[in-house]
Amino acid sequence: MLVEPEGHQVEALRRKFPEDAKDEEWIPALSREAGWVIISLDRRITRNPAQRAMWRNSRLKGFFLARAWGDLDILKLTARLLLRCPEFVEADRLFDEGTAIQVLIRGRLRPLPL
Question: What is the pTM of this model?
Fold first, then answer.
C-alpha cells in the first residue's frame, strides 16, 4: 500500500479480493465502502451494458487507462501514474460519482459515456 502525504492511499485490488474476482463481486463491495476511486487498464466495464449500469449505480469513480498504457513496462506505468496523482485527485473533485474517465497516455482526461 502506498500512502501519499495528503492522506490518499493506493491499494491493489488483489490485496482485497482474489485475483480472479469478477467485477460483479468487487464493484458492489467497494461501493458499500466510502471513498474508493478505481484506476484500471480493463475498460470492459465501460463497454458491456449490464456492467455499465452496475458501475453507474455503484457511485464509484474510475480512471480507465487507454490501451497505450498497457504497452508500458510496470515501472514506467507506475512512474507515470504517480506523476499524475495530483491530476487524479483534482479530477476526483470535479467528476460525479458513477463516472468513468479515460486517461490518455499523452495527458488528457475525458469522461467515457456510460
Answer: 0.85
